[in-house]
Amino acid sequence: AVATHLARTGREDDAVRSLHRAVRLAPTSGLAWEMLAGLHTFAPGDADLTSLEQAAAAIKDPVQAAPFAYALAKAYDDLGDVDRAFTFYERGAAMMLGGRAPRMDSFFAQIEAVRSAFSSTRLVPGNATTRTERPILIIGCPRSGTTLLERMLATSPDIASGGELKMLRLACLGFSPPSPAAVDTFVASAGGETSAWQLVADTYVRKLTARFGRADNIVDKGLVNYLYVGALALALPQARIIHVRRNPLDVAWSCYRRRFHDGLAWSYNFESIAAFMRGYAEICMFWKNALPERILAIDFEHLVLDPDTETSRVFSFLGLERPENWRAFHERSDAVLTSSQLQVRKPLNPSGIGAWKRYERHLGPMVDALVKFGVLRRAEPRQ
Length: 383
Known about the structure:
Elements: H1 2-8, H2 12-25, H3 30-39, H4 47-57, H5 62-78, H6 82-97, H7 105-117, E1 136-139, H8 146-153, E2 160-161, H9 167-171, H10 180-190, H11 193-212, E3 218-220, H12 229-235, E4 240-245, H13 248-256, H14 270-290, E5 295-299, H15 300-305, H16 307-318, H17 364-372
Parallel strand pairs: 1-3, 1-4, 2-3, 4-5
């Protein structure tokens, strides 16, 4: 817990020292080794790698062995041994799945239910409230760059970073997950459309205010917010929504090589990753078509390679002045609670663009899955 806090607040050297003590006291702690591997850069002849390999060899239970597999994959990746690293990424993913192939039928059914619940007849100004609070919703697939954008925005004194909040989903519990029947029942019980969305606004604003002292310009990038964009648009018509996109090959590979701690079972299988990305793209396109003036789409690659232009677009969309120190986002000392905590502690750099290419010879099945689900066209140039 101490090392986790130190890492989240940017004190990486202190976190590494704490983790070295932890693995000396408990060498079979997979979580400690996995975190240490994430913070440490392995070099040839590294004593830590020898100790990690010895500790991993002693673990027989697949559940306990999974974090060791990801730690070893990171170590071999640092050493440039991508073949051996991929073997351990693959092994770790299989351990996380435990022989179960993720079923995505229910996910696609949920996406269709949300689209049906928020049809063009519901998403009209006459159904919305007249509330004036202006939170900022960021949506985007995991590993698409949403945390980077949030950190950039938070350099503004007018903006507060909320991180992956659950408040919008909690405000929508009366019809969660959204479906036509659930939303219709909620609206009827509230006495009509505007009254229903007023209830959502009351709850969401109350929760934001209780935590941040206000609701305006609070960045909310909750993982499931993509399901509730329509509800937010009706509840708080002045809220701003930003959709972050990234090259699908980089997103898919970045998800696969990450051991998430919040039950994202789809991320351990190339087919289910591609299925999730297809469904996510479909619902985001639906929201963009339904609410064209409310949603700004930006590309991770443009944000990294042409940050002056992209940040100018974003702050203009938000109606705020871009701060002079926006490039110093990596120097902020407040906690980062997402899996991107290490990347956003560094200045802007293009290292994450095309990162999948190092493993290209192993990723034929990933490319095939992305093509199969229409996320990628075989003829597209791969950036």
